[in-house]
């Protein structure tokens, strides 16, 4: 019922005693989640054992006298709870002492659960002694109750202290074995989920690292062209570029960001584009204030805006308009980037054949949300009640209102 590998507690693993405030409450961290789980296992196991005894009795295998289900249930459940209380209390005292003083013990507990906290050379004798003590106590209480009732004289003759101790050891081995494999399976699942989360974060960082130079090189190329023709605009563009990079640097290192920060970076980018395109670019935004605090992955909207300007509006001599709208669509966040440019076909962009920026957005949606988010590209989308536009493209993001929660490796097991 204990881990097969050895977890020796050497002197160099024991650090300066830590306070409860620095590592969390031992009662909440060690006792509550493990006691709840073991109490449930003990109760279920006691009921099953009582049912088994009653079935054997009904078939004439268990005992010549008929005692009834409630006798077996009270005996198994009462004895099991006493053994549980004794074992859990003793384990908590020893575990708390080690957990507060050893960083290695806290690390083992976070990685493997309660059965890796104490070294097996300590845990096995400790739990065995505690189970036997609890068994002796429960037998004394049970024998006193039987003696007072005088209703089952043969029951006391059939059950003595020795047989009760043997049954308790077998009973406790079953309970702790089941619990050990439950904890082990859960911690393996936690480690797998954590590895997947780290992989997703690394993939997002890689995609973001690719996307930011992509936008920067385009802007520097435009800046180079303006230096010769419009030096004043070039200076303004450089100032906006510095502001944009400063705002983006810190946010690019975060996995999520409020929508207000994402829109602020979009506005910085649009300021750069307005300097380059002048009156050829008209921007309209509609973002309700109550949606600005929703968490979204960074750098999702800016690639859509860049794609609309580069492939839709900039190739037209007269430019055009760009509309950015955000709204709540039931339990989804709907973000639309619409332009009245040359359209998907002339731009050479289709839902199945998209540029680098759109590919990054699609990859980020998949790694962050799986199948719960999507990006849609369409042509000639107009407002309700208006005639269809002959040209133009709309990119629509559908995101869950809440990002999926991820479990850290130190998550405790609370079934």
Fraction of residues in H or I helices? 55-70%
Give the termini distance in whole angstroms: 19 Å
**Based on DSSP secondary structure assignment, what is the total number of beta strands?**
7
Mean pLDDT: 77
Largest sheet: 5 strands, mixed
* SSE order: HHHHHHHHEHEEHEEHHEE
Query: What form results from the Cα inertia axes?
Result: elongated
Strand line-up in the sheet with most strands: 2-4-5-7-6
Instruction: Indicate how many domains the architecture comprises.
Output: 2
Explain this structure to me?
- Strands 2-4-5-7-6 form a five-stranded mixed sheet, with helices on one face. A two-stranded antiparallel ribbon has the order 1-3.
- The longest helix is centred in the middle third of the chain and has 69 residues, at 161-229.
- The chain has two domains: 11-196, no CATH class; 230-400, Heat Shock Protein 90 (2-Layer Sandwich).
- The chain has helices at residues 20-23, 26-58, 69-101, 103-112, 120-149, 153-158, 161-229, 231-251, 259-277, 301-313, 343-347, 356-369; strands spanning 257-258, 281-286, 295-296, 320-329, 332-339, 374-379, 393-400.
- Helix 3 (69-101) runs antiparallel to helix 5.
- It is 62% helix and 10% strand.
- The chain is built from twelve helices and seven strands.
- By secondary structure, the protein is an alpha+beta fold.
């Amino acid at each position: 019922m204990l881990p097969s590998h050895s977890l020796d507690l050497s002197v160099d693993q024991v650090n300066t005693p830590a306070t409860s405030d620095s590592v969390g409450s031992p009662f909440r961290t060690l006792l509550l989640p493990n006691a709840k789980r073991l109490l449930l296992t003990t109760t279920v196991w006691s009921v099953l054992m009582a049912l088994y005894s009653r079935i054997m009795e009904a078939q004439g295998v268990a005992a010549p006298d008929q005692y009834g289900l409630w006798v077996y249930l009270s005996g198994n459940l009462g004895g099991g709870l006493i053994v549980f209380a004794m074992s859990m209390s003793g384990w908590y005292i020893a575990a708390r002492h080690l957990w507060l003083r050893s960083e290695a013990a806290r690390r083992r507990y976070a990685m493997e659960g309660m059965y890796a906290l104490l070294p097996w050379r300590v845990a096995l004798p400790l739990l065995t002694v505690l189970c036997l003590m609890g068994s002796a106590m429960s037998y004394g209480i049970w024998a006193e109750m039987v003696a007072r009732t005088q209703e089952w004289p043969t029951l006391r003759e059939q059950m003595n202290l020795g047989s009760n101790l043997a049954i308790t050891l077998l009973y406790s081995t079953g309970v702790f074995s089941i619990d050990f494999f439950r904890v082990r399976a859960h911690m393996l699942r936690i480690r797998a989920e954590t590895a997947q989360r780290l992989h997703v974060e690394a993939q997002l960082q890689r995609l973001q690292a690719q996307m930011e130079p992509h936008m920067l090189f385009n802007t520097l190329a435009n800046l180079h062209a303006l230096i010769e023709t419009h030096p004043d605009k070039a200076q303004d563009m450089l100032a906006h570029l510095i502001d944009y990079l400063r705002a983006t640097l810190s946010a690019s290192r975060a996995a999520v960001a409020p929508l207000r920060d994402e829109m602020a970076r979009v506005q910085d980018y649009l300021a750069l584009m307005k300097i380059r395109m002048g009156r050829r670019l008209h921007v309209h935004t509609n973002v309700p204030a109550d949606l600005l605090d929703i968490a979204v992955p960074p750098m999702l909207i800016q690639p859509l805006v860049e794609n609309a300007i580069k492939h839709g509006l900039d190739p037209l001599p007269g430019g055009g308009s760009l509309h950015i709208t955000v709204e709540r669509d039931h339990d989804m966040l709907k973000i639309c980037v619409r332009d009245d440019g040359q359209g998907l076909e002339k731009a050479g962009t289709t839902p199945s054949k998209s540029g680098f920026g759109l590919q990054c957005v699609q990859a980020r949606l998949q790694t962050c949300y799986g199948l719960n988010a999507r990006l849609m590209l369409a042509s000639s989308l107009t407002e309700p009640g208006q005639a269809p536009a002959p040209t133009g493209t709309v990119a629509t993001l559908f995101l869950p209102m809440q990002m999926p929660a991820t479990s850290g490796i130190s998550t405790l097991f609370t079934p």
